[in-house]
Amino acid sequence: MNDTPSRESLASVLGGRKGAVDASLPPVGFVVGWLAAGQSIAWGAWAAIGVAVVVGAIRLVRGDRARAVVVSLAAVIAAALVALHTGRAQDFFLIQVLSNVASALLWAASAAIRWPLLGVVVGLLLGQKTRWRKDPALLRAYSIATLVWSCQYVLRVLVYVPLWWTGQLVALGVARTVLTWPLQALTIAVSGWVLYRVLPADHPGLRLAEPEPGKGQ
User: Fold this and answer.
1) CA distance 68 to 83
2) Which of 10, 31, 47, 217 could be a cystine partner for 173, CB 3.0 to 4.6 Å?
3) What pLDDT digit, counting tens, does each position of 181-212 carry?
């Protein structure tokens, strides 16, 4: 049978480059503001918030959801408040460090309990919700590919923590940029490759195969 439907790529479903690029700009603003004002945390904080406001306005014009924009802006404000409260510039990145620790654990745990987050996300985006779990091959493939995403967060933690601990703010800013959309793009590519390597050759791909017309459930 050569009527196997063409498989969708994981990248075409997830996309996400614009959002990842946008997320990397406020931290760059913080570092630039901090340097330009003679290592002033306050100026760095205002620079980061200013960049976040501009990015948020552009996202709204682009048609992004207002709630997502507000959440992103709130995250930047929270990071700035943490740094201002502790008086340590590197603590602007503390929430980011902790969120990557939590994400690494959460993605790994989701695969272990057979509710892989990659499958949950893709299932929602494709409108199949959690029906993909009825397919053992797809469940196994999503579980293994989800571990690739967990490794992404582990890598960030391994880079961020030593830089944060030693107060290397400029290096943190550079790492935050390099390990945002470039790493995310690599993760999507590798997890997609892994997923399709695990699936049988005749499997339709990311979706649970729908029953043929007239064949019932």
Assistant:
1) 23
2) 31
3) 889 889 999 999 999 899 988 888 887 665 55
